């Protein structure tokens, strides 16, 4: 019995960790294929070290390219690995180019595809992530959904076979790491000279924002207007866009603490102690929700509709006035619902896959 996981981006390194542990516990051969979509130390290697994820058996070293070229290179190189290894199942995660390339490569070789985080929808086909997740869902044989809303989304598209409601694998690792946060808390806050609840946390990484100078300027303008101390772990793409900003008032960053991307535990600590979180990241939205920290989403929609319906997340897009109002007025005080499962998603996924493989033997 052999299972391959195809990963390539920072969120996928986090999502694969619970599967790595569960497959190791069940003594199932598990091959990690790293496409190389993220390759900076802060965006890649540090996660393998910190989370005790084995060194990938293959690093395809694709790197940064245009959407088409990057996906094509991933598809070509992943296919070669799958032809060599011939796994019984290929697992893909989330909604990146690595996700789609891995799913296409496996499906064309008649290797069953399992999609973790299946059924998420923004209903915006101008988003690369939406195209990736829709196509991946329609060629996957195992669709592991994190929430009831994602199951419903698949049903609307006529996908009802092979659909499993298992919970969120990111909640698995979040639950398992909460106790470790307390031990590191003082260090990261002291290093950055931060006090709990006296700063905002900002992340920007989605292409619709990082490649748009006007969007970045609107976000920064809103934060500067409110004169709030803001910690800003900066994504490499966002950093490039910042260099194109000509407004001297925005370039001064008077109230900003701009830092390099941080590791998983340090990011959780920064989220937990922030007064509010502003982000376009799906993972950060969920983590803020689980901590009970008000989240301002820098998009006009979210796949994680549960966080908005529960009143803990508000959609501000890149509208300066909406962002400013949310920073000053959005103050929910609610206990998060258990809509993301019970922290045992990986166990349910592996149990399902093993049962299916044994059935076919």
Which key terms come to mind for this protein?
361 residues, 14% strand, Rossmann fold, alpha/beta, 7-stranded parallel β-sheet, 13 strands
Write the layout of secondary structure elements.
Blueprint (H helix, E strand, L loop, with lengths): L1 E6 L2 H16 L3 E6 L10 H6 L7 E2 L7 H19 L3 E5 L3 H12 L4 E4 L11 H12 L2 E4 L2 H9 L6 E3 L3 H23 L8 E4 L3 H4 L2 H14 L3 E4 L2 H7 L5 H4 L4 E4 L4 H10 L2 E4 L2 H10 L3 E3 L7 H5 L3 E3 L4 H10 L15 H16 L1
Parallel strand pairs: 1-2, 1-4, 2-3, 4-5, 5-6, 6-7, 8-9, 8-11, 9-10, 11-12, 12-13
The tally of structural domains comes to 2
Span of the ends, CA to CA = 10 Å
What is the helical fraction, as a range of percent?
40-55%
Classify the secondary structure makeup into a structural class: alpha/beta
If you consult CATH, what is the topology of the largest domain? Rossmann fold
Report the β-strand fraction as a percent range.
5-15%
Outline the structure in words.
This protein is α/β, with parallel strands linked by helices and 361 residues long. The protein has two domains: 2-168 and 341-360, Rossmann fold (3-Layer(aba) Sandwich), CATH 3.40.50; 172-329, Rossmann fold (3-Layer(aba) Sandwich), CATH 3.40.50.2000. It is 49% helix and 14% strand. The strands form two sheets. A seven-stranded parallel beta sheet has the order 3-2-1-4-5-6-7, with helices on both faces. β2, α2 and β3 form a beta-alpha-beta unit. α7 packs across α12 (264-273) and α9 (213-226) runs parallel beside α15. The N and C termini lie close together (10 Å).
